[in-house]
Amino acid sequence: MRNRLGVIKWRIRGISTNIQCPVQGHRARSTHAAVDSVFETVSPSIKSWEEVPGPKPLPLLGNTWRFVPYIGGYSVEHVDKVCLSLREKYGKCVKMAGLLGRPDMLFVFDAGEVERVFRGEDSAPHRPSMPSLNYYKHTLRKDFFGAEKDCAGVIAVHGDSWAAFRTKVSKVALSTSSAAQYTVPVAEVADAFSLDTRLGCFESVEGSESQRLIDAVHTFFISVGELELRAPWWRIYPTAMFRRYVAALDTILRQVASQFYINSVTLSHVERALKECQANGGSKSLLQDLVTAAGPRVAAVAALDLFLVGIDTTSNAVASTLYQLASRPHIQERLHDEITKVLQGRPLAPGDINQMPYLKACVKEVLRLFPVVIGNGRQLTKDTVICGYNIPRGIQVIFQHYVMGNSEEYFSDASEFRPERWIQRSTYKHHAFASLPFGFGKRMCLGRRFAELEMHVALCKIVQAFKMEYHHEPLDYHIHPMYTPNGPLRLKFIDR
Ligand code: HEM
C-alpha cells in the first residue's frame, strides 16, 4: 500500500489519545476505545515511505558497505553509537534501507510512537527474526522442528504457530508466582543462571556438558550479529562463521544418527526433569512445569529457546549492574540498608524481593542506561502510519530503547544514575515506552520473570556479603553481542 495516501484502510487497536509526533507535528488519530476502529482516510499530510530520511543506499551495495570494517564507518560492535548519530543527523524516524539480504528497516526514536505501535499490535506480533536462525530451524533442521505441528518454539517462529506454542509455555514461564518459587534455588547458586537444574557452571570443568552449553550459546551470539549485519554470504555458501554457528546450535540440539536429537544437552535436562517430576509427584521447576503442562517435546523445544536467549542476556545484565554499582558506594550502602532491614539476618525467602523497591529500581536504572538488548522490533503485518509517514507492511520497525532511555526528552537528568526515579515517579520526568528492556505486549520477553529474579537475587546476595570497588579506567560499553562493558571487570570485593 505504498504511497496510496488517498484511500487507506487500517485497523488500530486501542490507540492512546493525543499523541503528538514531534517530527511532523502530526497529531495521531485518537480513540479511547480498546476495540478495533477502522479509519477510511488518511490526511494528505501523511508522507510516503520514500520520504523517510536516512542514509542513502548505493546502487548494488545498498547500505551494507557501511558495515565493512575501515571503509564503511558503521561498526557492528558500536551500533549504539551508530544509532545515536542517526538520531542526531536524521531525526526521530530514520530509514535504513538496502541492507543486503534483509528487509528495509525503520529506526524509531519517538516513545509516543513506540507506544502507539505496540498498543496497536494484533494477536501474533511479528518480531524481525534472524534469517540465519530461521534457516536453521525451518530448513537445516526442519526434521526436528517441523516434526510436530506448532512445535518449533517461539524464537524465529511467527503467526499461528508462534501463538500456539507461546500459549503453551507462557502461563508457566510468565507467572510471577511461579518465578518466585525459585527464590531459594536461585539464591543457592547466587549468580549462576539456572533455568532448572543447577547446571553446575561454577564447578564445571572444560569439556563438561555445562561448559559446552555455555560456550555454544556464546558462539551463537557472537556469530549471529555478524551473520545478520554483514553481507549474507552464508546464503550462498556455508562460510566459516556460519559453520561455527550451526555447530553451536547443533551442540545444543545434537543430532544422533538418523534419530531425533535425543542426546542433546537440552533433551538430557528434559529427561532428568521428567524423571524427577515423576519421582516427586510434584511441580518443582520450570522445566518440570512445562513437561507437565505441555509434554516433553514442547518442554525440550522451549528449553532450547530459553537457553539460547536466557544465558548471555542475564549474565551480562548482572555484570553491567555490578560494574555500575562498584563506583557508587552510596548506592551500595542504601541497598545494603534495605536488604538488611528486610532480611534481618535470615536467608532470602520467596516474597522478600518484593519488599526491596530500591533493589528493583537499581536494576531498572541499569537497564535504562545500558539495556543489554539496545533495540527491539516488529516486522509490520499491515501498513502503519509512524511519525507521520506511511510505513508499508513488511518493513522492520526497530524501537531504539538505548537512545530513548538516555534521552533528556524522556527522562530528567537522563545521564545520571538515579534509581530513585523509579520510586518517586512524580518527581522525575519519565516515559514508560522509552525504556522497555524486556519488550512489550504479547511478544514480550518470555524469561522476564526469571531474568528479574536471577538479577535481584544475585545482586541481593552480593551486596549483602561484600562492598564492591572499581579502581581502573572507566570502561566503554560495546555490543558483544549484548550491550556490555568492554573489558575485564576488575572489581574488588571486600567482605562486609
Ligand atoms: C536481562 C535479561 C533479559 C533481557 C534484557 C531480555 C530481553 C528480551 C527482549 C527485548 C525480547 C524481545 C521482546 C519483544 O519482542 O517485545 C526478549 C524475548 C525473549 N526472551 Fe528475553 N531477555 C532477558 C532474559 C531472558 C531469559 C533469562 C530468558 C529465558 C529464561 C529469556 C527468554 C526470551 C524468549 C524465549 C524471548 C522470545 C519471546 C517470543 O518471541 O515470544 N529472556 N527478551
TrEMBL record:
<keyword id="KW-0349">Heme</keyword>
<feature type="binding site" description="axial binding residue">
    <location>
        <position position="445"/>
    </location>
    <ligand>
        <name>heme</name>
    </ligand>
</feature>
<dbReference type="InterPro" id="IPR050479">
    <property type="entry name" value="CYP11_CYP27_families"/>
</dbReference>
<dbReference type="GO" id="GO:0005506">
    <property type="term" value="F:iron ion binding"/>
</dbReference>
<keyword id="KW-0560">Oxidoreductase</keyword>
<keyword id="KW-0503">Monooxygenase</keyword>
<dbReference type="GO" id="GO:0016705">
    <property type="term" value="F:oxidoreductase activity, acting on paired donors, with incorporation or reduction of molecular oxygen"/>
</dbReference>
<keyword id="KW-0479">Metal-binding</keyword>
<dbReference type="GO" id="GO:0004497">
    <property type="term" value="F:monooxygenase activity"/>
</dbReference>
<dbReference type="InterPro" id="IPR036396">
    <property type="entry name" value="Cyt_P450_sf"/>
</dbReference>
<dbReference type="Pfam" id="PF00067">
    <property type="entry name" value="p450"/>
</dbReference>
<dbReference type="InterPro" id="IPR002401">
    <property type="entry name" value="Cyt_P450_E_grp-I"/>
</dbReference>
<protein>
    <submittedName>
        <fullName>Putative cytochrome P450 49a1</fullName>
    </submittedName>
</protein>
<keyword id="KW-0408">Iron</keyword>
<dbReference type="InterPro" id="IPR017972">
    <property type="entry name" value="Cyt_P450_CS"/>
</dbReference>
<dbReference type="InterPro" id="IPR001128">
    <property type="entry name" value="Cyt_P450"/>
</dbReference>
<dbReference type="GO" id="GO:0020037">
    <property type="term" value="F:heme binding"/>
</dbReference>
<comment type="similarity">
    <text>Belongs to the cytochrome P450 family.</text>
</comment>
